[in-house]
Write a structure and sequence with these properties.
- The protein is an alpha+beta fold and 153 residues long.
- It has 7 helices and 5 strands, in the order ααααβααββββα.
- The protein has 2 domains: 60 residues; 77 residues, Glutaredoxin.
- A 5-stranded mixed β-sheet has the order 2-3-1-4-5, covered by helices on one side.
- β4 and β5 form a beta hairpin.
- Bound molecules: FE2/S2 (inorganic) cluster.
- The site of FE2/S2 (inorganic) cluster (FES) has 12 residues, from α5.
């Protein structure tokens, strides 16, 4: 890991008082500064906070706010929660995967998009829901995928 990145993690740990409880706050800082949580960064922060690596990775993968891959310029979250699943969320995710030629939790080669699946975006009445950056797309259909994605450069 680059010395500058280690230095910023050290500063975050110091700011959050080096306690095991500060793991989430430190991860938030890393996510904000580096755009994602690299495996190296998770291990480094866990080691510094004296938290088992297994617990650190459990925290890093539990919260959808954290990404273990570099995010694209545009982040796509396809909801696969119960309401969205029933209304075809899985097929929407597959369609986006085919359209972008990437699997969920991956990023396009040009860095334009990263695709993620989430369990509930909190707006179940609008199912099936796709969120791109901060935009919620309601009642999404497979036919609308191309036109939705064209808006994001
Ligand atoms: S299940 Fe998709 S928004 Fe709640």
């Amino acid at each position: 890991m680059e010395p500058g990145k280690k230095k910023s993690i050290d500063a975050s740990i110091k700011k959050h008082k080096s306690s095991a409880k500060s793991l989430i706050a430190v991860f938030q800082d890393i996510q904000k500064q580096q755009g994602y949580l690299s495996e190296e960064a998770v291990r480094y922060a866990a080691d510094k906070l004296k938290v088992p690596a297994s617990r650190a990775f459990a925290v890093a993968t539990f919260y959808s706010a954290f990404s273990l891959i570099p995010r694209g310029r545009n982040t796509i979250d396809v909801c696969l929660g119960t309401a969205c699943h029933i209304k075809g969320g899985g097929r929407i995710a597959e369609r986006i995967s085919r359209h972008l030629q990437i699997k969920p939790e991956d990023r396009t080669r040009d860095g334009r998009f990263s695709l993620h699946t989430v369990r509930c975006l909190g707006c179940c009445a609008l199912a099936p829901v796709v969120k791109v950056n901060n935009d919620i797309h309601a009642d999404t259909t497979q036919d609308r995928i191309s036109s939705i994605l064209e808006k994001y450069q």
